[in-house]
Hints:
- The complex is a heterotrimer.
- Among the domains of chain A are: 1-33, no CATH class; 295-507, Dipeptide-binding Protein, domain 3, CATH 3.10.105.
- Chain A is 32% helix and 20% strand.
- Chain A has 18 helices and 18 strands.
- A six-stranded mixed sheet of chain A has the order 11-16-12-15-13-14, sandwiched between helices.
- In chain A, strand 2 and strand 3 form a beta hairpin.
- In chain A, helix 10 runs antiparallel to helix 13.
- Chain A starts with a helix and ends with a strand.
- Residues 1-21 of chain A have low confidence and may be disordered.
- Chain B is mostly helical.
- Chain B has a domain at 92-301: MetI-like fold.
- Chain B is 76% helix and 0% strand.
- Chain B has helices at 2-29, 43-52, 59-73, 87-122, 127-141, 147-158, 172-202, 205-212, 217-246, 249-255, 260-270, 273-301.
- In chain B, 47% of the residues are buried.
- Chain C has helices at residues 7-22, 26-36, 38-60, 76-79, 99-135, 137-151, 155-166, 170-181, 183-197, 200-207, 212-248, 260-269, 277-304.
- In chain C, helix 1 packs antiparallel against helix 11 (212-248) and helix 5 runs antiparallel to helix 11.
- Chain C is elongated.
- Mean pLDDT of chain C is 81; it is low at 1-9 and 11-22.
- At the A-C interface, helix 8, helix 11, helix 14 and strand 14 of A face loops of C.
- Chain B: It comes from Pseudooceanicola antarcticus.
- Chain B: Residues 95-294 form the ABC transmembrane type-1 domain.
- Chain B: It is found in: Cell membrane.
- Chain B: The chain crosses the membrane at residues 104-122, 134-160, 172-191, 233-255, 275-301.
Amino acid sequence: MKPITKLAIAALLSGTALSGVQAATHPETGQELAADQTFTYRLLDDVSSFDPQIVEDVDGANVVRDLFEGLMNQDEDGNLVPGVATGYELSDDKMTYTFTLRDNAVWSNGDPVVAGDFVFGWRRAADPATASPYQWFVELMSIENASEVIAGDLAPEELGVSAPDDHTLVVKLTTPLPYFPQMTTHSTTFPAPQKVIEEFGAEWTKPENIVSNGAYVLTEYKPGERIVRERNETYWDNENTILDKTVGLIINDENVALTRYLAGELDRTDVPAGQYPRLKEEYPDEAISFPRLCNYYYTFNLSDSGPEAFKDPMVRKALSLAVDRKIITENVMAGGQPEAYSFTPEAVAGFTPPSSDMVNMTQAERDAKAKELLAEAGYGADNPLSFEMVYNTSEAHEKVAVVLSQMWKQKLGVEATLANMEWKVFLEERGNQNFDLARGAWCGDYNEASTFLDLITTPSGYNDGKFSNAEYDQLITDAKTAEDTTPLYTRAEEIIAEETPVIPIYHYAGVYMMDSDVGNWPVDNVEQNWYSKNLYKLAE
Amino acid sequence: MLAYVARRLLVAVPTILLLVVASFFLMHTAPGGPFTSERPLPPAVLANIQAQYGLDQPLWKQLWDYLYNIVVHFDFGPSFVQKDRSVNDIIAHGFPISLTYGSLSFLAASVVGIALGIAAAIRHNTWIDYIAVSLGIAAQALPNFIMGPILILTFTLWLGILPGGGWNGGQWQYLIMPVIALSTSYMGNIARITRSSMLEIMNSNFIRTARAKGLPTRAIIWRHAMKPTLLPVVSYLGPVFVYVLTGSVFVDMYFSTGGLGASYVSSALTRDYAVLLGVTILYGALTVIVNLLTDLAYAWFDPKIRY
Amino acid sequence: MFGKSEKAAELAADITDFNAIRGRSLFRDAMDRFLRNKAAMASVVVLALIIAFVVFGPLFAQYSNEEIDWTRMGDIKGMGAPSLETGHYFGLDELGRDLFARTIQATQTSLLVGLIGAGMALIVGTAWGVIAGYYGGRLDSFMMRFVDIMLAIPLTLVLILILVIAGRSFVTLFVALGAVSWLTMSRIVRGQTLTLKTREFIEAARAGGVSETGIIFRHILPNLIGVVIVYASLLVPEMILAESFISFLGLGISEPMTSLGRLIAEGAGTMNYGTLWQLLFPLFFYVTIIITMFFIGDGLRDALDPKDR
């Protein structure tokens, strides 16, 4: 251990000791803090992994973000703030990033965090032998040689990332990527402790073995029961960390979770669909809802295996018009979800949904127009339109599907048969264009419209409806390098509105019961990347 | 007797082997795989992952490797979904939990059920009988999964005396609700079977003879009627024991106990082949053993049976 | 668990003895005894009422089971309670659909599941058992070894596997339930067949030149009816319970169809949200059906059991 880190630790330890003993107040807001700084929240299920390069689920990423720290972090609004890196420089050709690492960052075993740990972590992520499901993320970051490493054509050492010294990390890209720094907040890019991984192998993430560099360390993991992470005394910013402990309780059933929240066992839980208005009335300070970066839609199968009727844009448009989104957002989900008339959520930074004719009509006008269009397309009482709509088994999806089918049936006389499928079957069937109309949803990987609009381009792997429009594809391609993307994205949304390859239904909202003594929950971070170190518990 | 046990165990091996092979192929016919996800993985990535887990091999080879590792290294492989854990880990963690609350529920159901049944039979056609019968039927007719939310609402939210879930190393506060939820429906059935069996025995000739000899009722019940009464109960209890362990999904789901029941169901849904097979083998073996024990117990209760 | 009830097995032997001695008049006697069993008769009446409800209920329903009441769906707790005025006798479900119509349809499904599930077990189990028992020899030991192996498999697991693989539909559900419930039935039937085979009247029939299939259909099967019916009646509630467990796991039938198990699972989730009727109505029908089936099953068993209690 270097003298400097020892000193730092001593200083940090004394800092914590102080904040632990006194009935502390928050350094900025001056609010009185609770003596017990523990935040307890509900987890739906076990997380996929604690390994930053392996983890693939959102809940798991939230845990890993507390345990490990990457180059950059996000603040409460989703803006970039320094993490292990104090800053970065971009070369003139916009293809080389040079990150400067802070010298007081330490692993929980006392070793300094060096640039080599990032190099190791990134190579590890791309290495086929690691079998990370997020290998594609390294490719998406456009790091030099990423594709070749993943394909196994080059050794992981050839990846375009290097550490000239312990505090400098150089990344070479194959193409300019304006949102590259944003991507370094993703868990795949976190550093990895080489010594520990080599010593323990697959066992390295066990609480007794794991070494991490974040504000917290994993102290307890009881599968199916709880995940506990506690303050990491060696963390460089430990002094400013208020929360001592974060406990994730695994509760599969959302209604049981709500009961346990009401019994005071949890500080945060999800609100079951439809229960928000009632809870808001009873617990105005605790029921919260805020927009999120996700959309919810139904996609038509436009491929050869799809029904003939859906080849006609008038039919698709009619079905979309007849959906009374207000009923779904207010009566079914009822959690403050915004109604969706565009594919990209309004919450996306710098995106303004175009004002289509549909937005401006009343629902009665839309219904009338829908009938008109459908009749024009040749469907009516004598020749009723019928198709099957598939969704994966889930109470909320089922409610939406039932309501949609009833709207179509009662307004247009359309027979939509419901078919729910178990998740894996659903993915398989939808991926193989084995459907008429299928549910879809997407949460943005980053806060920019292309994360959504990319989905329905011709080459997209997620374009299960096989929508293909040359102008649309061109717009999205152009947007990648354009200075001002707004007109391009607006036009792209207009094409979606005209062609209706999908029926946007609503955009997600984060709907929680959150104990009013939880301070600083990042409601304005639409990606909901939260860090325990930014939270605190107020005295009751 | 020993020869009988040996023969049964010998038959068990091919039985379990067959079970593994059948489950293995059934599983692979289910649409989708462990790595089918909302965001389809690029082919190169998928290939890497499948190679890592050996899923790129022909099915027979996968099966052979799987069996080989179990027999030679007692290694059931890694979980495909919970990437930090091996199947051995998952079973080692979950099974003791399932076993603990399962055995306690089994015990509670047997003791209370048998007591209720005997009380009802001895006081045939009195209010004790009626209450016992109604309780037994009500307990059995309620679907056991609605017990979970009812108990949590009552004991955690309204009364505030029990934690709403978790395991905490099996502390008693955490055990009460799972045991009540799991044992009720079996309790009802056991009470019904005990009652009718006891009634039949008490009307049989040898009891009549004992009565005629002037033996006190208590002695008749304990010395003569007990064993034959429990005969049909024992044969019912065997499958119940296995079922209490395998059918405890809802306990794990509602009470966050971390037992194996939830692991099994979720592994089937997420196509976590290794976990699914591992748990199937475990439960298969358990079923075979419990069936054998039941038959042996049967011999003890009924001297006419000889193996 | 499914179909492993030992009650029937236990009295199987008695019934055959009885058959052999007193012949077909057993059924008239049994019928008398059953009619005298108050609990069983009351259950038959209640069950008949439920069936009448399922058959005639739709005539009184003001809404279909899938129609959404748009004006009330926004405030189920306030406006969705059971009421004669609104025509929603049982109130509304979470989505504003008429619970009266849905309960009728669900009851129908659950009864069908019980009857068809038990019926499948009856047909497959009887066929399997009779063939094994009657032809005997290697075929017998092969068929029975197969049953033994199947019995060693935790059947809940098989049920889940079948539903996951085959997707969900009425047919799959029946097949899955039938597939796991015929095993014990086949064992009992085989045992009975073995005993019957050696009886004098079978010998006589064979000597009289009746064909093998003739013997099976005219002499063996009629003598098996008693035990088979008793056992099947005990299976019905087990099938309904099993279906509710499947629904709880989310593997049941598809919307807009529903079953009592599903309605109960939904109602149980929301029971603390002031809409308790969503749980109570389906639960009432469910519990009533299960209890009546118990009593009818017990009644049948007692009626067919020669040892009068």
